[in-house]
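S.,

As promised, the NAP run. Input:
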Amino acid sequence: MASKKAFITGITGQDGSYLTEFLLEKGYEVAGLIRRNVAGDLGNIKHLRDEIQLFYGDLQSPESVAQALYDFKPNEIYNLAAQSSPLASFKDKIGTMMITGVGAVQVFERAKDIVPEAKIYQASTSEMFGETKEVPQTEQTRMIAANPYAAAKLYAHQMASIARRDKKKPQFICCGILFNHESPRRGINFITRKVSVGVACIKNGKKDKIPLNEAGEPIVQNGKIKLGWLGFKRDWGYSKDYVEGMWLMLQADQADDYILSTNKTWTGEDLCREAFATVGIDNWQDYIETDDRFVPPVETGPLMGDYTKAKTKLGWEPKTSFPELIKMMVTSDLAKFS
Ligand code: NAP
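Predicted complex:
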């Protein structure tokens, strides 16, 4: 049997890199779309450069997506590219919609014309549940986006559903409604990573070359990490566990939507407590400063996902606990920022 071919948008991101490793191990030929500005530094996929094909492109350029699909002819497409930060989306509403919403639909449309048999995975998100009252959330829970990122994802999510139900030319598109998932490869502007980097820099007494936060300031200033309100609740899992779920969705006979989550919820305070505990610091509050600039104008949550459907139909389950995950991230950053 000829090897399967997977095309990944967002291949340089956290999930894209773990998914690439996972698919290569399964014997797939893997190609990805990369923006020209990252050509010099492939970041998370640097170590995979010789094993994959890369196509220059941008979700805002339908022509570049079409060309890559035409040249590579994948059987599976994983659309992971996005402006993926909810907080940043308040400052770039249009850009977020163009990439995260319209960009996804461009992928569906181009795939329909060029590789109509290809199975597509669309990266939907628990953020689409917004200010939900229902806990835990299931695939049936009402979605009311609470930030521009979630609104863009919701647009793509509903367009995927429409494409799937099209009586004339139905497409196989699965939407993974993934709850927060993290790893040592998580972007530095997301709170879990900001905390793991901050704890590592504090523990190592690092004074220079400290990575910058979203405001362009060092993550640790005067021995403290600046964060927004820590009472929010999230369901946090490990990215590497979740990419397997993405693949399982595309191996099913019918396209469908699935939640991937841990069915547990934790606060921002729990996150700080776990991260500082990894380096033996109990009085974590002394190292945190509240900064309103990192509080979203509209709060999402409480988020907690019921993954029963994925477990029953795909045999998927999360393997890594939240404390294990945070310990892994802090340990990795202690080595990186020594
Ligand atoms: P990530 O690390 O932020 O990666 C985003 C990827 O999208 C990067 O490779 C980025 O490329 C690429 N990208 C951004 N704008 C693009 C554009 N205009 N054209 C082409 N590529 C572009 O995200 P992630 O954490 O791996 O998440 C993967 C997907 O799952 C995203 O769609 C995200 O919204 C969604 N999701 C994530 C979570 C989570 O908790 N991680 C939860 C639910 C859903 P550059 O390297 O060039 O910036």
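Residues 9-10, 12-16, 33, 35, 38, 58-60, 80-84, 99, 123, 125, 178, 180-181, 187 surround NAP (CB under 6 Å). The mean pLDDT is 96.

- D.
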